[in-house]
Amino acid sequence: MDTLVDGIAAIAASLEVLKEMNEIDQESDLPSVKLKIAELTTALASVQVILATTQQEIASKDETILTLQQNLERQKTTIEREGFLYDQASDGSPEGAPYCPRCHQKDGVMMRLTESERDEFRMECPECKATYAVVARSYAEQRDKPAII
Ligand SMILES: [Zn+2]
Question: Domain of life here (predicted)?
């Protein structure tokens, strides 16, 4: 995290300016004091910007961690069929549309596949646009269909 290193450097620079201000004879050298105050103001302004940037980066990483934790929890209740992960119903059977294997393997993201608009025989990931020839588009749909006699 470069911003933290930059922030620490900016704080060190601010402290150095304060140290130099302390060494100036403040009653007889007012222009030097004013110059050091201007330097200190600039240094502290950069610290403020760096801290704000760091706060945004931390918030973004917190969001990523939360998503990955949710995906990890979801994986505990999934079941694999023919290379695809599905939600696991209370009876242990697969339920709903499969998750995108590419997004899961690449980013750890659980993204449900949807029917492809370009090819009726394939399913597509709304995130990475990968398409798959999935045998079971949705186990819930198959289970709910009435048996043909
Ligand atoms: Zn995907």
Answer: Bacteria
